[in-house]
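A brief tutorial aside. Many learners find it easier to grasp structure tokens once they have seen a single protein encoded end to end. The record that follows does exactly this for ATP synthase subunit delta. Read the sequence first, then the structure, and try to relate runs of similar tokens to stretches of the chain.
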Amino acid sequence: MGSATAQALAASTQALAAAKDVTLDTARELFVAARTVGDSSQLSGALADPSASVESRKNVVSAVFGGLSAASQSVLSAAVAQRWSSADELVDGIEELAIRSAAIAEPGVDIEGELFAFARLVAANPELELALGSRLGGEDAKGELVERLLAGSSAGAATTLIVSSLVRRPRERRVRQLLNRAIRFVSAQRGLVVATVHTATPLSDAQRTRLSDALSRRYDGEVSLNVVIDPAVVGGLRVQIADDVIDGSISARLADLRQKLAG
């Protein structure tokens, strides 16, 4: 990500936070806008052209997306008013705003946990990952497959919208990469730090609370736990937050001991 894009994202996210009446329809419209812009090199070029005036770029938004809600138009106008490092990064930015809008629209729903659960389902089913990630399948068929799968789970409307929208336009990205990216955006919108915890056995509520509290103190922010049951851990925990790994598992200690004995 270029520095221009980082600044553009920060400004666009602030505009989204200030927008009124952000609903799941707003998120849905922004996903459609991202697909529309991404599918047209002419349109994406016009909206990301740094030599064009801000007013002219906003006029393009009004002309192309005039049928969208006021909230969606205001967010899009704020986004195209910024300077992006490339047209592709503008599309990525609009998609991120769509994901964040879904998080805003459903504040009481554990979207991060639902996305993580679906990511684990995909990881455990290579055929499903192939079906969703293949270039051969139609985009509507992929979206409908996701909707059918999530209809039989406890996932809410926001999660279904995010996943079905992303698989329709993966843009050369793997499904699990898309899902992990979405988890980061939802968590960031809610001011959470995401920790992926690998453990051999399920954690009790008390253990989850103690671990979450300890990590929150260490990372100076509220931590959301995504727990993976992994027999290879043997005992203890392996915790990953972004690029940080805290490995207190027995398997890690045994591997370290073997390495020392071999040395």
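Self-check: Residues 193-262 form a domain with the Protein Binding, DinI Protein; Chain A fold (CATH 3.30.910). If you spotted this yourself, you are ready for the next section.
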